[in-house]
Design goal:
heterodimer; A: mainly alpha; globular; B: 214 residues; mainly alpha; two-stranded antiparallel sheet; 9 helices; 2% strand
């Protein structure tokens, strides 16, 4: 008798216990359950919920690992322990050091643990109360959350936000598959509005930035490298930033934990598209939407409608294609907008949904310096409208077919 | 209740819980979202509505047989408006700061659906004593929710109650702030009031299954 059989027998024996869903969650995490469907016709598919979720997680792992290196690197650069290599790119030996990784690892691991711990505890609680099985939906959310928060976020804040996001964003609607809003973004939105000082500005994106300021105030000889994100810097009205495009593309810049490296996000995107888990329609239409809005803003600047004195000038003047590599629009497009539960379901709807996400993201980014990163707001907004879009797409189809039917019968 | 007959007592107790104007009828939500960031404002608002609804219901009830039904809405509006102006003037005279916090929302009591709702549904068809009890009951039901929401929003959003710091000083870092606690800025925004009202509705309906509708 192996562990698998023991666990199965244990499950059989305790079939009507209240805590069984909690056990099953861990059980099915380890093994495929021993049960088979008995009667009726059924279709077997390889891509059940758990496979889908695992593929998304695999696509995110490179971003997480990179985030760990980057966290350590940014910290060490900020404290003057290593020199910042301008344009050094991805293959910089000062970046891929064990030192960087270990520091980042110990900073980011607690975020992951809190995110999964609190989230799964709430999922299990609700599963027990409603006596259904724990769904795998939280696996992806729990992984996304550490990737989209600043590294120095206090853990209790994260815990409160996760509890809020899972209960209000998901469980009140009936759990996995029923939610209107993306839970990971609900969590981020909660953090953003509840604790704005920890979610924006120039003191949160690099580990230890606050202590560093103290050291400078005490006469320590550190370079005044700004710890703000590129978007934050533009939103302050600067017209140029300290990083070049390749830094942004490879991701060796301050930012939320996992969203900095556009290169790894593109790899993740290709993986998701190849495995048909992520919708390429949504990803591409989001990017097209962002580029369109960027072009419009560039046009406004070129036409001379807005002068250098305007507070929007900095971001409006950014060449349109650069909007894709600053901020986290790419991360949002690949991992957030494609969430199959909250996105549009119809193909035509997906194009509209994605396009509007990109379009609105850049609009918020430029017009509201208080919310330098508009991507999460844009996705949440479109989450709400996704069913409406689907409704009109479906109605449009119905109408067209009715017309065809009439022509035939007439 | 010795003072009131059982039926009259229900007029007061029903709106407090099982027929609450906010959590069951979902009326008067706008003001519940707008002014509950502070407990003091919630309390004053509750008292203002108590006065307007209590007196207004009696006035309408007394006039119920002489109001031509075609223009009854206008008559009701005039009654509410008069009472609201009295409240507004009293606040401006004796609590100017507070009346500034409440700003237009005192004036907007006129459009509070609970008040017109009670006039229409109850005062027009019942005697003054019953109408008075009904008005008091509904205003209390409204006030209770306002005060609960205001309590949580002020406590978690600003760390104070009635403006008195109860969790320590956020800037000097005393009390719970010493341990890294921070005020939740989201609590001060109206969406959070909506969520708290939603949670109250959730709690109430899971306690009393009869309230759940399909």
């Amino acid at each position: 008798m192996g562990l698998k059989n023991n666990l199965h027998n244990f499950r059989e024996k305790n079939k009507d216990k209240k805590w069984l869903p909690a056990f099953s969650a861990i059980h099915t995490f380890l093994y495929l359950p021993n049960e088979i469907t008995h009667n009726g016709t059924h279709i077997k598919a390889a891509d059940d919920l758990k496979r889908t979720m695992n593929i998304v997680i695999m696509a995110m792992v490179p971003c997480l690992l990179f985030g760990m290196f980057n966290a350590g690197y940014q910290h060490h650069v900020a404290f003057g322990e290593i020199d910042r290599v301008v344009g050094g790119g991805f293959f910089n030996s000062a970046f891929w050091t064990m030192d960087n990784f270990v520091l980042g690892f110990w900073k980011i691991l607690p975020l992951v643990v809190v995110s999964y711990g609190v989230g799964l505890a709430i999922e299990i609680l609700f599963a027990m109360k409603n006596s259904h099985e724990v769904e795998e939906g939280y696996l992806v959310t729990g992984m996304l959350v550490p990737l989209i928060v600043p590294i120095d976020i206090p853990l209790w804040m994260l815990a409160v936000a996760v509890a809020f996001g899972v209960v209000i964003g998901k469980e009140v609607f009936g759990g996995t598959g029923m939610n209107i809003l993306n839970p990971a973004l609900t969590i981020r939105a909660f953090l953003f509005f509840a604790y704005p000082t920890w979610m924006s500005g120039d003191k949160v994106w690099v580990h230890g930035a606050v202590e560093r300021d103290q050291m400078i105030a005490n006469g320590s000889n550190l370079d005044a490298i700004s710890g703000e994100t590129i978007l934050g810097s533009y939103a302050q009205g600067n017209t140029s930033v300290a990083y070049d495009y390749w830094d942004m593309f490879w991701g060796i810049i301050p930012g939320s934990v996992g969203e900095t490296s556009k290169f790894l996000i593109i790899i993740g995107a290709l993986f998701l598209i190849f495995t048909k888990v992520g919708s390429w329609r949504i990803i591409f239409s989001t990017l097209i939407g962002a580029l369109t809005m960027g072009l419009i803003f560039n046009g406004v600047v070129d036409a001379g409608w807005i002068g250098e004195s305007s507070k929007f000038y900095g971001l409006m003047n950014v060449p349109f294609w650069q909007h894709l590599i600053i901020g986290s629009i790419l991360f949002g497009a690949v991992y957030m907008a494609t969430d199959p539960v909250t996105a549009s379901q119809t193909n035509k709807g997906k194009w509209i949904y994605g396009f509007l996400i990109g379009f609105i993201s850049i609009m918020i980014r430029v017009f509201n310096p208080a919310y330098p990163e508009g991507v999460f707001l844009a996705i949440l907004l479109m989450n709400v409208f996704a069913p409406t879009i689907d409704h009109y797409v479906v109605q449009g189809n119905v109408k067209r077919r009715m017309k065809r039917l009439k022509v035939k019968t007439a | 209740m010795g003072l009131l007959s059982k039926k009259d007592g229900k007029l007061i107790t029903d709106p407090l819980a099982d027929n609450n104007p906010i959590t069951i009828q979902v009326l008067g939500i706008c003001s519940a979202l707008a002014i509950t960031a502070e407990l003091k404002a919630s309390l004053v608002m509750a008292i203002a509505v108590l006065f307007v609804l209590g007196v207004g219901n009696v006035v309408i009830s007394l006039m119920r047989n002489i109001i031509p039904s075609k223009i009854r809405i206008i008559v009701q509006l005039i009654v509410v408006a008069t009472l609201v102006i009295i409240v507004d003037q009293v606040l401006k005279a004796f609590a100017y700061e507070l009346s500034k916090t409440l700003s237009v929302f005192i004036g907007l009591i006129i459009t509070n659906c609970i008040i017109m709702g009670r006039f229409e549904a109850f005062a027009l068809g019942n005697g003054p004593w019953k109408a008075f009890l009904d008005g008091i009951g509904n205003a209390l039901g409204y006030g209770v929710i306002l005060i609960i929401v205001g309590f949580f929003r002020e406590l978690l959003g600003s760390g104070t109650l009635f403006g008195i710091p109860v969790l320590g000083d956020a800037i000097e870092k005393t009390g719970v702030y010493k341990y890294g606690y921070e005020n939740n800025g989201f609590m001060l925004m109206p969406p959070m009031a909506l969520i708290i009202v939603g949670l109250l509705i959730w709690v109430q309906r899971s306690k009393n299954k009869d309230l759940i509708e399909d």
